[in-house]
Amino acid sequence: METTMVACTTTCKLTLVTAKTLSPKFSFNFPVNKQVRRNVATLKQASFSYLPLRVRASSQAASAATEATKVGANLIPSEMKAWVYGEYGGVDVLKFDENVSVPEVKEDQVLIKVVAAALNPVDAKRRQGKFKATDSPLPTVPGYDVAGVVVKVGSQVKEFKEGDEVYGDVNEKALDGPKQFGSLAEYTAVEEKLLALKPKNLDFVQAASLPLAIETAYEGLERTGFSAGKSILVLNGSGGVGSLVIQLAKQVFGASKVVATSGTRNLELLKILGADLAIDYTKENFEDLPEKFDVVYDAIGQCDKAVKVVKEGGAVVALTGAVTPPGFRFVVTSNGAVLKKLNPYLESGKVKPVIDPKGPFPFSQVAEAFSYIETNRASGKVVIHPIP
C-alpha cells in the first residue's frame, strides 16, 4: 500500500526581513546567473513559511476565523457547501455541491468550522479508487488535513471547547476506513484524539499544511529508530513530507548530518530547511556518494537505489513505489498527541511549515489544486483557502 503525501498553498501577507537579519545559513554560495537570480527572487517573494520572513495572517484568514467563532451550536446550518465525488476516477469526478448535510457530531467528536484544508497525494489515490477495498462508502467529501474553529463538542469531549482554534488529520487511518465526510467542506466532524490546538504563531493556512505530512515524517523517523548523532539521507527533500523530515531530523531528533535531494530550483530550499548537503538529482546520482547513512527516508519511490547507500544495520523507509529489502513501508496513524508534542518546535520557529507558492487555491478551485498536486511538482504543501 502507498502512503505518499504531498500538498498545499497559502495567502499569508509577508514582509521580508532585511538582509542583515537573515539567518547565517541563508547564503547564496553559487554562481549568480540570471536563472539563479530569478529563483532567489521567487523564493524571497513566495509565501513559503520556511523562509526567514515575518509572517502575519492575511486579513482574509483572520476574518474567516472571526466569523467561525461567531457560529455557535445553535447557529450551525443543516446543509453546507462541499466538494464531493460519487464515483472513482480522475479530477473530473469532483463536483461542487451546496446542499451537503452537515455531519452529525458523535460523543467523542467536535464539529469544526473549516477555515483551511490541505491536499495530499493520498487524497488523489483514494479518489482514483486505489484503496476502494477499505474505503468508506461513496459519495465522499475528500480531505485529510484541516485547520479551523470548534463550533460544537460531543458529550465526552474534555480537551476542547467552542471557539478553540484546532488542527489535525481527520482520518485516524489513512487507508483503512477514512471518513466519508472529510475536510474539503464548510464543516467536518473529528475525534478529539486526532486534534491539537493550533500553534499560536501560525495562521490557519500554515496549520492546515502540517498534520498528515508532519505525522508521517515523525512516525517514519521513529520507526527507523532514528536518534541523536545519526545521519540521514532524505529523497525528495522539497516535498510535503521530505521538507519536514529534514527539519525534524535536525531539530527534534538531533541528526549529526542531513543530506537531501531535489531538483535544481529547490536546492537553496533544502539548505534553508537545514540540510548539510543538497544534491541535485538531475545532475548527480546519490548512490554514488562515498558515504553511507544510518537512515534513508525515501519520499519519492527509489527504494532500489536507497538501499545501496544505507549502512549495515540501518533502515530505509519508503513512502511510495516498490519496496526493496531492508526497506519497509508503513501506513501513518493520525494522532493528536504527536501534534501536541511538536507544537513547541513549531511555536519556537525551529520547525516551519513549507507551503507551495502557487496557492493557496480558493475553495472554487479544488479541482485545479488536485490537478496540480498530481503533477508531483509541488514544493511543500498545497492548501485550500478561504473556505466559505
Automatic annotation (TrEMBL):
Keywords: NAD, Oxidoreductase. SUPFAM superfamilies: GroES-like, NAD(P)-binding Rossmann-fold domains. Residues 89-384 form the Enoyl reductase (ER) domain. One of its GO terms (molecular function) is oxidoreductase activity, acting on the CH-CH group of donors, NAD or NADP as acceptor. The keyword Oxidoreductase applies. SMART domains: PKS_ER. Belongs to the zinc-containing alcohol dehydrogenase family. Quinone oxidoreductase subfamily. This is Enoyl reductase (ER) domain-containing protein.
